[in-house]
Amino acid sequence: MMKVYTDVFRICGNKLLRSHKILTIFILLCIIIVLLLIIIVQLYQCDCIFDNVEEVQSESLVETKGNHVLCLIIPFRDRFDELLVFLTHMKVFLDNQSVEYQVYVVNQVDSYRFNRGSLINVGFRHVSSHSSCDFIAMHDVDLIPLNPKLNYSYPGDSIMHIAAPHLHPKYHYKTFLGGILMMKNAHFQLVNGLSNKYWGWGLEDDELYVRIKEARIRIDRPPDNVGTGISDTFRHIHDKTRRRRDMTKCFNQKEVTRKRDRETGLHDVQYTLSSSYVLNVNESLAVILNVGLKCNQTVTPWCLCRVGGGGGKQVLPVPRVGNPSG
Ligand SMILES: [Mn+2]
Questions:
Q1: Radius of gyration of the chain from Cα atoms?
Q2: Residue 110 half-sphere exposure, CB side, CA atoms within 13 Å?
Q3: How many A from CA of 135 to the centre of ligand 1?
Q4: What phi and psi, each to the nearest 5 degrees, are found at residue 119?
Q5: Which of 77, 123, 162, 256 could form a disulfide bond with 322, CB atoms 3.0-4.6 angstroms apart?
Q6: How far apart, in whole angstroms, are the C-alpha atoms of residue 139 and residue 144?
Q7: What is the percent of the chain with per-residue pLDDT over 90, rounded to a whole number?
């Protein structure tokens, strides 16, 4: 009888001992899991703290930059190859300067001659009602800034001519104001934008120079010590045999476009926006505005120069070539 009891006791004891071991291992596992969980939670909390620090830093960074947003306005027609180069380049270039910006390509879809001034006016009207931009750069699509010292930040109370005569690859006269010109929205409104009378290549930027001078706005240019010159500050991707400049003059275009235009500008540019969409070139985004300009052929008959179309030097049909200045 005693032996049976001891046997039973031994068996139960062994079982108890075994289940005790299992329990111990189980408890240890639980402790390890809880410890791991605590470590993981703490790590996440650390991440949160870092995130907060970063947020605070980036906010203060934006604050020191004054929260300005730049709209690049690109007058455009038929230069898609150049646009691809431009967009991929500008994203890297402007991101490096931490400039907050948006790109608007104003694509002329009518069959009149190219009108850079009117396209910029249309672009400005669009961005003033559809974007948060408070300053603009009218920007030729074929002029690629190479020198990182070319500063695209808010120009304040002066106008910044980035494509300055001492840096532009082609134009070096003192009053040259084409290529890339940056100003706050209020200044563009103050000068009433650009004249709408310049159909075909050239002179609209010279007329804008007179508007700015009359408004007594200071024009700044990049300093002399940017370290590059006319050959290496910009890349001009203009193929002049493929993209012939439309230099035709017909009717009384030559006489009229030599004078300061006090009639037309931002306030009266006539157009229809036929469509718009966002173009994504390798994560570089641009809004494409398809714009049909309207031409009052009584006022500016030279928006078309046709055979038998009027006085002056008569030139045969103008090819539909785009010409963002130069
Ligand atoms: Mn050009």
A1: 33
A2: 18
A3: 23
A4: -65, -40
A5: 77
A6: 10
A7: 71
How many A from CA of 239 to the centre of ligand 1? 8
Nearest partner of 117 among 78, 82, 175, 73, judged by Cα: 73
How many A from CA of 143 to the centre of ligand 1? 7
Q: What is the DSSP string of 220-261?
A: E---GGGS--TTTSEEE---TTTS-------TTHHHHTTS--
- Give distance in angstroms: CA of 142 to centre of ligand 1: 5
Q: Please give the distance, rounded to the nearest whole angstrom, from the Cα atom of residue 55 to the centre of ligand 1.
A: 42
Query: Is residue 201 predicted with pLDDT exceeding 50?
Result: yes
Q: Please give the pLDDT value at position 45.
A: 46
Digit-coded pLDDT (tens) for 160-177: 999 999 999 999 999 999
Please answer whether residues 295 and 271 qualify as being in contact, where contact means their C-beta atoms are separated by less than 8 angstroms. no
Residue 61 has a pLDDT of 40
- Which pLDDT band, with edges at 50, 70 and 90, does 22 fall under? confident
Q: Tokens 């690049």 correspond to what residue? A: 72
Residue 53: pLDDT above 80? no
Q: Which of 90, 107, 134, 108 is nearest to 277 (CA)?
A: 107
- Give me the helix-helix angle, 204-214 and 116-130, nearest 10°: 60
Residue 191 Cα, ligand 1 centroid: separation in angstroms?
25
Ligand 1 mean position, distance from CA 43 (Å):
55
Count how many Cα atoms sit within 13 Å of the Cα of residue 112 in the half-sphere of its side chain: 27
